[in-house]
Amino acid sequence: MKLAELKWPDVEALSKDTPIIIPIAAHEQHGVHLPLHTDSLLLGEIVRRTEEHLGNDALFAPLTWLGNSHHHRDFPGTLSADPRVYLDLLNGLLEDFIQHGFKRLVLLNGHGGNMVPGSQVVYELRQKLRKRTDLLLLSTTYWENSQPAPPHDGFVQRQMGHACEWETSMMLVIQPELVGEYQSARDVPFGESFPTATRGWTMTDRSEPGHIGTPSAASAEKGELLLSCFTSGVCEFLEQVRNWDGQSWE
């Protein structure tokens, strides 16, 4: 179900155990070959496919396109919420649904820079509402619930990058007319800087053109496989949310 298409009595009539999905993405630079709105476009497609599969078993809020993208601000066109403002935004969205009686809330993320804020806000809100043992507050990123695997071994990358083989491939499926010259884009290695630590960084520390990974290896065939794989993973995750017994840890 799409929240945007319901009337308020429709929402009031829903079971309060209905999983609520709040898609969060970004509007930021994606190298010289992908559009600024890539993260939101890709998450929107994952949400579209997932909603078609789940039907009335989950309620999808409108996609929140503004994300935490300060590390891309050196590139024109990037729009970003201040990290602390973004935490307040996410917290407010979750509390709105809790105010309306819903108990199973999922931030479904489509941008790497939102991972830390998403995790932080569900942690903070759970501490604030610590007596509510019926609440399930979750933050997940769509590409972390499943990964492409052999026999599809044509992939160069084994992880999500930025404007990379994976994102470029998926954009070639959903809006190929927005994809620029990617075949000649040079490889930008992921690197392994201080692997046991979290390092503060900006994109210009790592990549002059603004991408990380191997865009030149992209194809629409890989893109469809990735979209199907990621959608399947998100659907399985949300079915676990729907089937939660309302109390237990597992």
Question: What report would you give on this structure?
Answer:
With 250 residues, the chain is of the alpha/beta class. It has a domain at 3-152 and 230-243: Rossmann fold (3-Layer(aba) Sandwich), CATH 3.40.50.10310. Helix content is 37%, strand content 8%. The protein is built from 7 helices and 4 strands; from the N terminus they run αβαβαβαβααα. The chain has helices spanning 8-13, 38-54, 83-99, 115-128, 165-174, 203-206, 220-243; strands spanning 20-24, 59-60, 104-109, 136-141. Strands 2-1-3-4 form a 4-stranded parallel sheet, with helices on both faces. Helix 4 (115-128) links the parallel strand 3 and strand 4. The longest helix has 24 residues, at 220-243. The chain is globular. The model has no long low-confidence stretch (mean pLDDT 96).
Kindly name the structural category: alpha/beta
Unreliable runs = none
C-alpha Rg (nearest Å):
18 Å
The portion of residues assigned to helices is: 25-40%
E-strand count: 4
Query: Order of strands in the sheet with the most strands?
Result: 2-1-3-4
Main beta-sheet annotation: 4 strands, parallel
Q: Name the beta content range.
A: 5-15%
Using the alpha-carbon principal axes, give the shape: globular
User: End-to-end distance, in Å?
Assistant: 26 Å
Mean pLDDT: 96
- The CATH superfamily title of the domain at 3-152 and 230-243: Creatininase
H/E series, N to C? HEHEHEHEHHH
The tally of helices reads 7
Give a brief outline of the structure.
By secondary structure, the chain is of the alpha/beta class.
